[in-house]
Design goal:
By secondary structure, the chain is mainly beta. The protein contains no helices and 11 strands. The C terminus is likely disordered.
Length: 146
Amino acid sequence: MNNKNHKILDGYHYISRTFLLHEDVAEKKVSLTKISPNRIDEYLLYDFGLEEGDTFEMKNPITPFPEEGGLYVLDSIRNVEIWSGTMRKHFYFSPHETNQISTQNAIWVEGVGSLSLINAPGGHPDINNVGLLNCFLKMVNSFIPI
């Protein structure tokens, strides 16, 4: 689709197979493609090529968070050791001073995404009484991001 390779997300509310992920490794970007009967929408979810001080317009498609999350500023990038002993870059964002939509900070983990929902890069990791991500599976191996 769109001359890009996509991955289907299984489980959660993606079971309909109308939500696809595309990772552009060279560009360090992850996008979500939503397929509807009459249209295809693509959302840039993550840009791991950002540098401290950069701004990013958060999109949280199909989530309990505002779909248009507004502008965020990348405050810092830190290498953090995760449970498995692996180092992962953590991206710490705060709402831009002009952001009238979102008030919570956001954290991304390179290779994982948001600490909340994968399709909510601007989501604070405490929604519907669910805390932050504490593990994920990749090729049957469990990773603990923080």
